[in-house]
Amino acid sequence: MGTSQEVRNGDLVFCLFDVPETPRTVGLSRHEGMITGAYTVFEPVGRGNCEYFELFYRAMDDRKLLSPLYSGLRKTIPAERFLGTRTPQPPPGEQWAIVRFLDWANGRLERAILAKRKVIALLNEQKQAIIHRAVTRGLGPSAPLKSSGVPWLGDIPQHWEVMPIKRTCSLVRDGTHLPPARTRTGIPLLSVRNMVDGRLVRRPDDSFISKADFEKLNTSFVVRPNDVLMAIVGATLGKVALVHDIGPFQIQRSVSILRPRPELMSHDFLATFLRSPRLQQHLWQSVAFSAQPGIYLGFLANIPVPVPPTIDEQVSINVGLQLELSPISAAISRLEREIQLLSEYRTRLFADVVTGEVDVREAAAKLPAEPGVIPAPSEAPDLAEEDLEETLDTEIAHE
Predict the structure, then answer these.
(1) Tens digit of pLDDT for each residue in 221-250?
(2) Domain boundary among 72, 89, 106
(3) Contact assessment for residue 251 and residue 228, using Cβ atoms and an 8 Å cutoff
(4) Which residues pair with 307 in a beta bridge?
């Protein structure tokens, strides 16, 4: 397992352990070189069919159909057992057709997905610009402005103030530093994993501490509804969530707890400001830890916040912002759903084609020749690609 091994162009490389958790179990080598002995290398009998076998096992992997083969705590597939399984082997001409058709179909689906992701990126940029404008200019774009005195914050309305977070909040601290032993039941011990879509939520795999230990920790602090949480350590630095009434719980130290003063700062406005792009950029430019990204509580407490003078104005800004963002968020959700459907369609298409459920020999023969593509074993009339695109469009429309 710890030694290197040779891998050649055209070899199939498998990860035959931790199969359920491995994002991709199989891959086709396009290079000559060495690879860790943790992987299993197979040399196909006859180099002409390696692309088909990669597609076949990718389809099996996508649907986790290799699960009957693995066993043990590491969910390992012994190489001998794997070699003893039967694999369909179409004639060479049909293998070529399958590889040719799926390469074309995958390219077209990838282009469609990429185009949608580009639109999502543009919409997210628009959202960030709208959020920054709302938390630094409010709802009145023509209001007289003044310098905030903070370069990364820019100008703010003249009637607003700038205060450090510690003045706008009655509590600025992190979660428990020495969490007690975990228990099977009891009081949830939550973390940044519970911060989902701007809210703190319970998860099926939450950790627990005993009620007695929870009560001991409560002598120092307890997290309440309307507290604002921010991740201050790790890859999710800057992630923000609002606390709603989800029952008693304790929070881990990688998360900070901010409790806005109700007469001075709306919790929704503070959470929105903390999510704003300029503030997030400021956080990442101020990382203090070397082992992993993080900021100190003292730094967080002194971050300047633009403060509209009344809670009513802060609430109005947040309500207006949500109304403005609503159609953009809906468009992003729709595009993400379309990407999911295209991905699901591709998974099913690959499985149906490599197992012979769908015969693509005629369709592959109609594809126009491309540079670098191995010619078909037997040529067929070269028809228009638009005919095939129309067929694929029809398939997708029925999803």
Answers:
(1) 788 999 999 999 999 999 999 999 988 898
(2) 89
(3) no
(4) 161
Residues 277, 171 share a domain = yes
The CATH number covering residue 234 comes to 3.90.220.20
Contacts of residue 242, defined as CB under 8 A and 6 or more positions apart, other chains included, come to: 198, 199, 200, 226, 227, 228, 229, 267, 268, 271
* Residues 273-320: tens digit of each pLDDT: 999 999 999 999 999 876 789 999 999 999 999 999 999 999 999 999
d(CA 26, CA 51): 12
Decide if 75 is inside a domain: yes
Which residue range(s) make up the domain with 28? 1-89
Q: Report the distance separating Cα 241 and Cα 244, nearest Å.
A: 9
| Number of Cβ atoms within 10 Å of the Cβ of 306 | 22
Dihedral (C-alpha) 104, 107, 112, 116: value to the nearest 10 degrees?
A: 170
Sign of dihedral through CA atoms 125, 130, 135, 136? positive
Domain count, the chain: 2
Write the DSSP string, 331-363.
HHHHHHHHHHHHHHHHHHHHHHHHTTSS--HHH
In this structure, how many other beta carbons lie within 10 angstroms of the beta carbon of residue 328? 14
Distance (Å, whole) CA 305 – CA 136: 9
